[in-house]
Amino acid sequence: MRCRHWLLALILLLPGSAAALCSVVTTTPAGFGTLSSIALRTTSQPASTLNGGLSCTGSLLTLLTNNDHFYATVTSTQSGLVGPTGDVIGYTLYANNSTSYPVTRGTAYDFARNGIIDALGLLGGTTPKTVPLYLGTIIGSNVAAGVYTETLSIFWNWNYCSGIGVGSICLGRDINSGTTTLTVNLTVANDCTITAPNIAFGSAPVVSAFTPVTGQTINLACTKGSAYTVGLSDGQNPLSAGGRRRMISGSNYLAYDIFKSAGTTRWGSVGSARRSSTDAEVNPGNGLGTGSQIFNYNAKIYTDQTTPPAGTYLDNVVLDVGF
């Protein structure tokens, strides 16, 4: 009887595991840039940083499971961006470029959820990648001009499978943590909203019959705490001698002027001819931000000129605010 012996060769395939290590790194500051105080107060303003302090490389996207996590806990000694007078600008951090994923201060946010880490491709290559963060100001901040800053502390804490074997068996885990800081800054610029109705003298057959326009107002809502002056240009057709403003119709002129408050002092654009914010009839002083300061004025046609031919006479005057 002949016996046959079979040699069974067992071959175990061990796929190599990809190194997938993360580390806490120095962040890149997030800057909102320079914003008008009005734009800041009325519209949410965006900012971002491409480096929120966590850097990773390697591994596979399919390794992330419900047991894996990438926690970020953001804290600060401030409640927002603080400026030179102590005003605070509130803002929200977001885990991606959408307001659907807000990061609450003091609460761990898991970047492994909602597909955020996957979308970043943070674990999908050999080149280190960092986690970006997004920011948006909260509407309603009525603040003074100046530079606003805050330093955030970000505690990163992660635990995920860093290599995979046969049957998707995890061959090792990357478990670590660390803290980094993120500087956020924003510069607020002075600005105003201006309400300045047109001046209408009506019609008259001769210059002496024009009635002065009285009780006119210009309303300004300027940056909180701002000291400013308001000037009115000489218009498009000023008389070089005497400095009178003039309206024009064809080649004909009609001289007129604008005066401060209810008086006879001409309101101009340079030096003492301007009006200070402290000279407002309503709410004199520095700007209020959300409240108006009102400047009264009157206007009249000069009666010591020859009545020009009939026509529609027009002029444009520029109002400027200087801080």
From TrEMBL:
<feature type="domain" description="Spore coat protein U/FanG">
    <location>
        <begin position="18"/>
        <end position="153"/>
    </location>
</feature>
<dbReference type="InterPro" id="IPR053167">
    <property type="entry name" value="Spore_coat_component"/>
</dbReference>
<feature type="signal peptide">
    <location>
        <begin position="1"/>
        <end position="20"/>
    </location>
</feature>
<protein>
    <submittedName>
        <fullName>SCPU domain-containing protein</fullName>
    </submittedName>
</protein>
<dbReference type="Pfam" id="PF05229">
    <property type="entry name" value="SCPU"/>
</dbReference>
<dbReference type="InterPro" id="IPR007893">
    <property type="entry name" value="Spore_coat_U/FanG"/>
</dbReference>
<keyword id="KW-0732">Signal</keyword>
<feature type="domain" description="Spore coat protein U/FanG">
    <location>
        <begin position="179"/>
        <end position="318"/>
    </location>
</feature>
